[in-house]
Design goal:
heterodimer; A: 148 residues; mainly beta; 5-stranded mixed β-sheet; 2 helices; 11 strands; disordered N terminus; B: 685 residues; alpha/beta; 6-stranded mixed β-sheet; globular
């Protein structure tokens, strides 16, 4: 169920180590340094009264961690299934970002235009993919409903 | 100070120790005032000042050290009999304590300390002391031989080496976050132990409880968990000093004679809870001394001793600690409050907790501090506690604060709704009604249910939580109290009652009104703990208050603090625990038994003032138990109250014939009826 995040995804000077999350056909990235671990088949407990950006909470080694709907946070609607989550540390505490398929690591070193969309801070090309880099702290703020 | 790279840490340690020493000095000053110069007391005060002086020097606060030296001189004169304990001396010490607190606060934040030093010297000047001897030599350094400096009294203090054998009473300050981390790690270890147990069972087909090594590990971890929780506990006595001081200062200012009494000071509760109770308690004792206790002449006219009494009493009742502040003053003038608020007189005691309520006698204002009873109730509510008041005209007032012993665990009633388990905080749970209790009746299109002689709203818990309705017959209803109202929630079933380790949902989430937190269960799943105020607000279609309001006083104030011992006999755990909770909140000591035979064994061992029993139980049923009690000479006069679902006249007759004193039917049961019946039995006994 638990998978440690691989850290051997290269390390070229100037590149940013990132975890890539597939979300409804798009690829999003989170800086790898903020990612604690990736969990497969997370047991998420839904929260009554929670906004659509919140999937629920899950138990991460005894800690109650909010699970967030990455698709809802970036304005893509909502995830229809959550086979994986990436647990990351933000300045507002830990949170788990839902992913529609298995995440992978990569080095982001080729810019691919200006970032677009909520919480986006960069746009990169990885192989044949175009990846949007997200700001973990901005995602946390968006999830909490606090003004950015 | 010798540079070590840990100056801040040492200064923090010094500040914490200084607070304790200054508190001890203030307590000593008030004892001096009460009993005069007891040599042991004066020596202790001298030692406190001496240690404080040395500590200040070591951490690089020479001005503080110098000023403490002057206080030490005063105490030395008292110790050597060169100065009598006259009226000005306790004031001088108390004024010095205040000034030193200000100095240390300033020194810790890099601000000038001159103002505090001036306050100390002004206070000391009033004591009529001989001129202080010159300041001590330069502060000692840690390298000096400490043994050589302990002899002469005025000599500067230095760090005394730790004894080879630790004194069991010795304490060291530990940062709270370190304790919190320890608690979390122990919790994780306990969760890991459960996983090991499951692995033994799944992979080796071993029953974990049959494996010695596993059992020993579980036992050690259980003890570790309990001791770790204990490490966060502090005794009520640790905040008694400032409370006594507040009473003393008010009495001094107002020309009153007030005796301070403290009972149960060794009662322990979570440091966080106690810290947050400090201000409400200061407000209550100040109120008692300022507005409760009459002036000496007024007391004399009323035929009372001129000296009034303010009493703080703490005791543990189950998982709660009850702290009462009582005075023997004039009582609250409920007619005046009623006049000021315009409400019915019966609600006057409730009205004093409303914001802005202030009568001509400033009943809810605490002089000079602006802390009202509304703030007291809000603060106590934030600790998941409640505050109740009872008053008798001319005889006094008692405020009773009940708070959980710790916020790390929460006593909960577990229920199932929509197929999922949920926890409801017991402090907001008034009672549970069985499915067969009463058919819901509709009032103005809303579902309601009878509770005693009133109707209250009824809502399916699944509807409030946004879950699909459960098929099948309705289950029991749980009555929650919040926002000054009661509301019943239909659930699938009651699962029992237990303490849950409450965890918050993380700062990442917005405030969710329906939830108080979550608990990680032994199987790794998460159980949600629901918020009573949010549920009641949602069910009634009202917006919840920004801060969960404290529950209404569930228990009518007893004429006297209830003190009897009640034995609750019921084979249903939930009913048993609900009854225990109700009775303990009302101040009774409660023992429980699950069967008639167990009840007889308990009665033989410890006795009881009242037995409360169900009828339907395996083995010896309630009727047989009642008859057995009546047939046992030592127990024959013990009152028995039968509480059962059997409501026919024939059943009632059989109960009374068996020897029951009271026969209550559960369908008409509410806690007020239960408490009234128990109280009636105790009074008639």
């Amino acid at each position: 169920m638990t998978r440690a995040v691989a850290t051997d995804a290269g390390g070229a000077d100037g590149g940013l180590r990132a975890l890539l999350l597939p979300v409804l056909g798009e690829w999003y990235a989170i800086e790898l340094a903020s990612v604690r671990e990736v969990l497969r088949r997370p047991a998420i407990t839904p929260l009554p009264g929670a906004p659509p950006t919140v999937l629920g909470v899950l138990n991460v080694r005894g800690e109650v961690v909010p699970a967030l709907d990455t698709a809802a946070l970036v304005g893509l609607g909502g995830l229809d299934a959550v086979p994986y989550v990436a647990v990351l540390d933000t300045t507002a505490g830990p949170g788990a970002l839902g992913a529609g398929a298995e995440p992978r690591t990569a080095i982001l070193d080729r810019r691919a235009g200006a970032p677009e969309g909520p919480c986006a801070i960069g746009r990169y090309a990885v192989d044949e993919l175009v990846v949007t880099l997200l700001d973990g702290d901005a995602l946390a703020v968006a999830a909490s409903g606090a003004p950015a | 100070m010798t540079p070590t790279g840990h100056e801040d840490e040492f200064r923090q340690l010094f500040a914490r120790e200084a607070q304790a020493r200054l508190g001890s000095l203030a307590d000593g000053a008030m004892e001096l005032e009460r009993q005069g110069a007891d040599p042991e007391l004066v020596s202790q005060m001298f030692r406190d000042a001496h240690t404080l002086k040395g500590g200040a020097a070591v951490v690089g606060f020479p001005e503080v050290s110098e000023v403490v030296h002057e206080l030490e001189q005063l105490l030395d004169q008292l110790r050597n009999g060169r100065l009598e304990v006259q009226a000005g001396v306790p004031d001088a010490v108390l004024g010095s304590v205040d000034g030193l607190r200000a100095m240390i606060d300033a020194a810790m934040t890099g601000r000038p300390v001159a103002e505090g030093a001036g306050a100390v010297r002004t206070a000391l000047a009033k004591a009529g002391t001989a001129p202080p001897e010159p300041s001590p030599p330069p502060p000692p350094t840690p390298e000096r031989n400490p043994e050589a400096t302990v002899v002469a009294a005025p000599a500067p203090a230095v760090a005394v080496p730790a004894p080879v054998r630790a004194d069991p009473r010795e304490a060291i300050p530990v940062p709270v976050d370190r304790l919190d981390r320890l608690v979390r790690l122990v919790g994780e270890a306990a969760a890991a132990q459960l996983r090991v147990g499951r692995m033994l069972s799944d992979r080796l087909d071993d029953e974990p409880a049959d494996v010695d090594e596993y059992r020993e590990m579980a036992q050690a971890l259980g003890e570790l968990q309990e001791q770790t929780m204990r490490a966060r506990m502090v005794s009520v006595g640790t905040i008694a000093g400032p409370l006594r001081r507040a009473v003393r200062d008010i009495a001094h200012d107002r020309g009153k004679h007030v005796r301070w009494e403290l009972a149960g000071e060794s009662t322990e509760l979570d440091r966080h809870v106690l810290e947050h109770l400090r201000e409400p308690l200061v407000a209550l004792v100040r109120n008692a001394a300022d507005h409760g206790i009459e002036a000496p002449a007024e007391r004399a006219d009323a035929g009372k001793p001129q000296e009034g009494r303010v009493r703080l009493r703490a005791r543990q009742l189950g998982a709660e600690v009850v702290i009462s502040v009582a005075d023997d003053g004039r009582g609250i003038d409920t007619a005046r409050v009623q006049e000021a608020t315009g409400g019915p007189e019966g609600d006057a005691l409730e009205a004093i907790f409303r914001p802005g309520v202030s009568t001509a006698e400033t009943v809810t204002e605490v002089s000079g501090r602006g802390v009202g009873l509304d703030a007291v109730r809000t603060a106590v509510g934030a600790l998941r506690g409640r505050v109740e008041v009872r008053t008798t005209a001319g005889a006094g007032t008692e405020f009773r604060i009940s708070v959980p012993m710790t916020l790390a665990t929460l006593r909960c009633l577990l229920v199932r709704a929509g197929g999922r388990p949920y926890a409801l905080p017991m402090h907001s749970t008034a009672t549970a009604l069985p499915p067969s209790a009463e058919a819901p009746v509709e009032v103005e299109g809303r579902r309601t249910v009878w509770l005693g002689d009133e109707t209250i709203g009824l809502t399916d818990l699944t509807a409030v939580l946004g879950l699909p309705a459960t098929d099948g017959p309705g289950g029991p209803a749980v009555v929650l109290t919040a926002l000054g109202a009661r509301h019943a929630f239909r659930v699938d079933e009651l699962l029992g009652q237990r303490d849950v380790v409450l965890k918050d949902l993380g700062r990442l989430l917005p405030r969710l009104d329906l939830l108080a937190g979550a608990s990680v269960e032994p199987d790794g799943s998460i159980m949600l703990v629901l918020d009573a105020a949010g549920l009641v607000a949602a069910a009634r279609g009202t917006a919840p208050l920004p801060i969960a309001a404290p529950p209404e006083a569930l228990v009518p104030p007893a004429a006297e603090p209830a003190g009897g011992r009640v034995l609750v006999v019921d084979d249903a755990l939930t009913i048993r625990e609900l009854q225990r909770s109700i009775l303990e909140r009302a101040g009774y000591e409660v023992a429980t038994a699950a069967t008639g035979r167990e009840a007889m064994a308990r009665l033989a061992e410890d006795g009881a003032d009242v037995v409360l029993t169900d009828v339907e139980m395996p083995g010896m049923d309630g009727l047989e138990l009642t008859a057995a009690i009546r047939d046992t000479p030592a127990l024959t006069s013990t009152p028995v109250l039968i509480l059962t679902t059997r409501g026919s006249e024939e059943d009632r007759q059989r109960g009374l014939e068996a020897g029951a004193d009271v026969y209550l039917v559960k369908s008409a049961f509410d806690e007020r009826a239960l408490l009234a019946a128990v109280r009636g039995l105790l009074d008639s006994g």
